Amino acid sequence: MMKKDAKIYVAGHHGMVGSAIIRELKRQGYTNIIIRTHKELDLCRQDQVEAFFEKEKPDYVFLAAAKVGGIMANQDALADFMYDNMILEMNVIHSAWKNGCKKLEFLGSSCIYPRMAPQPMKESCLLTSELEKTNEAYALAKISGLKYCEYLNRQYGTDYISVMPTNLYGPNDNYHPVHSHVVPALIRRFHEAKEQNLPYVTCWGDGSPLREFLYVDDLANLCVFLMNHYSGNETVNAGTGKELTIKALTELVADVIGYTGEIRWDPSKPNGTPRKLLDVSKSAALGWTYQTELREGIRLSYEDFLNNPMRAER
After folding, report:
1. Which helix or strand (DSSP H or E) is residue 127 part of?
2. Which of 51, 79, 80, 170 supports an S-S bond with 216, CB 3.0-4.6 Å?
3. Residue 314 has pLDDT above 50, yes or no
4. Alpha carbons 103 and 284: distance in angstroms, whole number
């Protein structure tokens, strides 16, 4: 168990996940949280990361920093997604180990699992068949991070764990018109369509893929819970265990925002993985379950979008 005054470093505190973890830590009464901006500490620079860890010696590390994006961003910048993610995670994990960090938690993504993995996907299906090509570079980087944590545990007896969230959404999301994930992208598009009174909105693919979505504050609650209650080499899935089609999600977002025009589909654009549902029986057996239903989470996310106009400019 982390003591309330333990020195805790949250890497990636500006991002959606990192900022949610900080909110949750503060909510639970943790008082000694360390953060650094990118300008203060470039996690892709090994010398800077090593100097930071040698000076600060954090007891616990939440590694939520990552270069992330949707299908188009992943396709346009394959090399960047692989290099940036692999370099920064290796720098942080390695320096944490060198400086005696008590426990590290690595945040990954459900895209690490094979494209055609049996559904719902268990943690044990990792590396059993080929990955989804549209985010292969990102997935390979994340697999490397979680495997490095596992190998340190096996070789040096560390207590490093990894968590693999499903699709996330919530406050502090990226609403970039091209490089965002599906929920924030839909929020922005339907908001703008409503403002401009557009008669229809065209969405990628045919709407058939099935997806699961977890509100980011629920993930943060699980992350702190696991830091206090879980140790093991195998990763832990983070999700709701519920899924819906992209078409149903799109209609739900339009309804929450109040857009009443037509929704059209462009099947010439990629769908991505046909289905991605996590098996969440491990987190359930540990005593954890999600709290925020999708409609309420989308409402809260839209509220965040409206109250943070700078987020829309990313």
Report:
1. none
2. 170
3. no
4. 22
CB 50 within 8 A of CB 74: no
Burial of residue 155, with CB atoms counted within 10 A of its CB: 0-12 exposed, 13-18 middle, 19 or more buried: exposed
- Residue 33 is encoded by which pair of tokens? 């949280």
Confidence of residue 284 (pLDDT cuts 50, 70, 90): very high
Reply yes or no on whether 138 is catalytic: yes
pLDDT of residue 221: 98
Half-sphere exposure of 256 (CA within 13 A, CB side): 23
d(CA 256, CA 162): 34
Is residue 183 within 8 Å of 213, Cβ to Cβ?
yes
Q: Give alpha helix (H) positions in the chain.
A: 16-27, 46-56, 71-76, 78-98, 136-156, 182-195, 216-229, 246-257, 281-286, 294-307
C-alpha dist (Å) from residue 4 to 45, 79, 273: 30, 40, 41
C-alpha 197/C-alpha 99 separation (Å) is: 57
In the beta sheet, which residues pair with residue 61? 9, 104
Q: What is the mean pLDDT of the chain?
A: 93
pLDDT in tens, 116-136: 899 999 999 999 999 988 889
CA angle 228, 232, 238 (to 5 degrees): 70
- Token pair for 186: 């839909």
* Per-residue confidence band for 69, with pLDDT thresholds at 50, 70 and 90: low
Res 75: pLDDT: 67
Q: What distances in angstroms separate CA 154 from CA 63, 169, 227, 234, 292, one per listed residue?
A: 20, 34, 18, 12, 36
Checking phi first, is residue 223 left (phi over 0); if not, alpha (psi -120 to 50) or beta? alpha
Rg for the chain, CA atoms, rounded: 19
- The active-site residue out of 138, 160, 175, 302 is 138
